[in-house]
Amino acid sequence: MPLIKSNVHTHTTFCDGKDSMEDMIKAAVEVGFDTLGLSFHSYTAFDPSYCIRDYLAYMMEFERLKREYDGRICLLNGVELDLYGERPSVCDYVIGSVHYFRVGGRHYPVDCRAPGFVKIIEKVFAGDVYAAAELFYREAGELSESVAPDVYGHFDLITCSNAEHGLIDEDNPRYRRAALSAVEKLPRGAVVEVNLGRLFRGQGGMYPSPWLVRELNARGCRFMLSSDAHKKEALGFMFDETCKQLKELGVKSLARYSGNKIEEVEL
After folding, report:
1. Could you report the per-residue pLDDT of 140-159, keeping only the tens digit for each?
2. Strand order of the sheet with strand 35-41?
3. Helices and strands (H and E) in the chain: how many
């Protein structure tokens, strides 16, 4: 049973997940979680391909399963709210994320595979990947005021396909200045997720990168372990191993949802 017994970044077939809500819940129970947050992608009119498809049906299924699994696992209704997404009227928590560059009134995806990302850098940023990083982190810096999330999602998503294309050198001074400018805009005590979705897919390491974990930690941020699960097998993947890595990076405790409250778990 993992040290951290909850995950609140969970996607189902109601948005871009591969498994049903009930299958995700069953898997969470099997892993040994006491809390599971279901977090659909907020609606974005300019790109409806990945986001919530039927909010009413989603809520009806959530309420049904909350009753059915009462006593076995606490279920929370959350949203991964994009900077440019529509905020739902009711939710237990908000994960704030940036998924798009907005340039000239158009939105371009940040988290696409390498060929698509390279085309965007060439077309939109004239081949300057650090200009893209600067825009991404300006947008990330807007989250605290525009979204005021409970949790900050995949803080350095701009590096999502770096294992494939290797365009971003995280030691580059322009990149580091851009990332740290967003860190400085976070409120003290902000909860930043340690996202293992890319690690599960075998496409790179955790978000944030280790150097950024150290910087966030030094500035008083807290961390929450997250599967960013799009399929049931991802729930709890590498949780204990990542706890050990975070401890080596100087992180002393992790925040987690226990029921509808955030508690601290010592590492």
Report:
1. 999 999 999 999 999 999 99
2. 6-7, 35-41, 74-82, 93-97, 151-152, 191-195, 222-226, 253-258, 261-266
3. 9, 11
- The span from the CA of 189 to the CA of 249, in Å, is 18
The pTM for the full model equals 0.97
Q: What is the CATH number of the domain that holds 233?
A: 3.20.20.140
Range of the domain at 243: 6-266
Asked if residue 1 belongs to a domain, the reply is no
Asked, for residue 65, whether it belongs to a domain, the answer is: yes
CA distance 31 to 27: 6
Whether 41 maps to a domain, the answer reads yes
Number of structural domains found in the chain: 1
Per-residue pLDDT tens digits for 172-211: 999 999 999 999 999 999 999 999 999 999 999 999 999 9
3-state DSSP percent of the chain in helix, strand and coil, to 5: 35, 20, 40
